[in-house]
Specification:
This protein is of the alpha/beta class. It has helices at 2-11, 25-31, 53-63, 98-114, 129-141, 159-166, 177-186, 233-256; strands spanning 13-16, 34-39, 71-74, 119-124, 147-152. The protein contains eight helices and five strands. Helix 4 (98-114) crosses helix 5 (129-141) and helix 7 (177-186) packs across helix 8 (233-256). The radius of gyration is 21 Å and the shape is globular.
Length: 276
């Protein structure tokens, strides 16, 4: 382990905290640029994708940080998450209540910062985590001096680029061609494309304005939607490579910025002349 730490200090990379001896923690934390926490889910993605799809992607893209030229320390992935009503009834989905998920993430992030890592990069593989992780980050940043960065792999490749990869048919749905290809890019043997028919998703609302639409069960829907037949391992490799480069760019820009000041106490109320 000493040789591994010395090589990491000299050349950068990703050091797993689960293998780190307790007596080395302070030295490693002082040398690290940041800690990495993958967050995923155990959730039905259709008959063609593994229940751990979001974990494969969160862990996989978090691992790509090793090539960013920085010294990072990886923490074990958070496996269970709040899941939407659209996937909770399907077999294999293990859903945590949102309030439990937020509280759990608060404690995990707080513990990582308390261990000596004021910068924590959260690499997300499950869309519903965006709200719970954000809430936990806000809570921790009000308690400790911390810079907490949340990156969702899904957003590192934009809709225009997925259209270039898969054509004009919708590809970015839950369990669709984009997500299926991404899993193929990391673990081809985990994917069974022939097990799921194409299930065209319902069109988006005809408006140019941003919105969030939450529904019980959008038809057509079988716990997933999309044109699975468009997914390929070659497209998955391109998604992986593109997202990895951009994740590295984000991480380097973040590390180059100064750390924030510590959180302070609430300012004293101002007394104005004429007030009692």
């Amino acid at each position: 382990m000493d040789e591994l730490i010395e090589a990491w200090q000299a050349d950068g990379g990703l050091l797993p905290v689960s293998r780190l001896p307790g007596h080395e923690l302070a030295r490693v934390a002082a040398a690290a640029d940041f800690a990495v926490l993958p967050v995923g889910a155990v959730e039905w993605h259709g008959p063609h994708l593994p229940l751990g799809t979001d974990l494969i992607l969160a862990d996989g893209f978090a691992g790509e940080v090793a090539g960013a030229g920085l010294r990072a320390v990886s923490f074990p992935a958070v496996p269970y998450a709040a899941c939407p009503g659209q996937t909770r009834p399907w077999p294999g989905t293990i859903a945590v209540r949102p309030e439990i998920a937020v509280g759990y993430l608060c404690d995990v992030l707080d513990g990582i910062v308390a261990a000596g890592f004021p910068r924590v990069l959260v690499v997300n593989g499950h869309d519903a985590n965006m709200s719970t992780v954000r809430a936990a980050m806000e809570w921790v940043s009000g308690r400790r001096r911390a810079s907490l960065l949340l990156v969702n792999w899904f957003q590192l490749v934009d809709a225009r680029e997925t259209t270039e990869l898969f054509g004009e048919l919708p590809s970015r749905g839950h369990g669709g061609a984009y997500e299926t290809s991404a899993v193929l890019g990391f673990d081809p043997e985990a994917v069974h494309p022939g097990a799921a028919p194409d299930l065209p998703p319902r069109p988006k609302l005809p408006t140019a304005y941003p919105y969030v639409l939450v529904e019980s069960r959008p038809e057509p829907w079988q716990g997933w939607s999309g044109h699975v037949s468009l997914a390929t391992e070659a497209a998955g490799r391109r998604v992986r490579e593109t997202a990895a480069v951009r994740l590295g760019e984000v991480a380097r820009a973040w590390v180059a910025a100064p750390l924030p000041g510590p959180p302070g106490a609430d300012p004293a109320p101002q007394r104005h002349e004429g007030n009692a």
